[in-house]
Amino acid sequence: MHKLTFFFIVCVLLYGTAAPAQDKFYTKTGKIFFKCTKSPLEKIEATNRSTTCVMDTKTGMIQFAVLMKGFEFEKALMQEHFNENYVETDKFPRAEFKGQVVNNSEINYAKDGSYTAHVKGALQIHGETKTVETNGTLTVKGNDILINSTFTILLSDYKVEIPSVVSDKISNTVNITVEGVLEPLHK
Amino acid sequence: MRRKTVVLSISALVIISGSFYGFNEYTRKNKDLVSVSPDVQISATDLIQKFETDETSANKTFLGRKDFIVAVTGQVKEINRDENGYYSIVLGDVNNMSSVRCSMDSLHQQDARDLTKGATVSIKGAFTGFNKDDLLGSDVILNRCVINKNN
Lengths: 187, 151
Description:
Number of strands of chain A: 9
Helix content of chain A: 10-25%
Radius of gyration of chain A: 21 Å
Largest interface: A-B, 26 and 29 residues
Shape of chain B: elongated
Order of helices and strands of chain B: HEHHEEEHEE
Helix content of chain B: 25-40%
Number of helices of chain A: 2
Strand content of chain B: 25-35%
Oligomer: heterodimer
Structural class of chain A: mainly beta
Radius of gyration of chain B: 21 Å
Structural class of chain B: alpha/beta
Order of helices and strands of chain A: HEEEEHEEEEE
Number of strands of chain B: 6
Shape of chain A: elongated
Strand order of the largest sheet of chain B: 2-3-4-6-5
Strand content of chain A: over 45%
Largest sheet of chain A: 8 strands, antiparallel, barrel
């Protein structure tokens, strides 16, 4: 009987150590901040704090999804113009990025530290999809992975038209910052 | 001469009131939802079910307006606070992966501090959309949320 109990304990311990490591990480409270200010007199910037991100550390696959209507501006009028006239959020409610950490094999997810990630993928905004390539930082900290990246896109690439009357205020180049703390996904 | 004065006075009045309206409109902030009556009062589980059953029809009701204010009542599943101190409250059934996620208004962050997990609460927020996700569970997103004290 004692031998059986011992055998059982060994089996449980072995199973524990042989169980696969956590591969998928996620957040639903990622932050995206963008600015397309042209004139120093007027700040054109907005933040979205409900960005979803899933990452598979085994394959390097990384995906983001964001509801465009969730971008908050300081001025209500700016937010209304953004939703109704520029990115048409009722027609195109979601923006998505599906990509890959190209240098995934160089990142040691088992060891705490900060790593440079080279990410490449397809970004869909306003119904238009374009390839985006950028560098970001992946910081492994305990059980979590902190992500941070800044890159630029052109509004014209996504067919977002800026009326000439405000073209001196809104830049065609948009600076985007993505931040998030990814936790292990337990399913 | 008198006619000229009248015309000038009216023009000045139009210009001043126009500028005043323009300036107010230009500097207008998003409405604080504390004093705004909701367009709909609904439970978190019913709201999620509406979108999971027929997203297109639910979007027709909830989208297409500048602000559609939803007062949602449900059980607090999670209280998240990000590194900048911003709170988001997750409402719904703990046995269902889908939820209503309420991003608290920057002026009313302190209201979220008093909430406890498992408690039932009514939150008022601007409908932002439905984020369908088969892996993580889908979410109805509300922004600029405040605790609905009129419930």
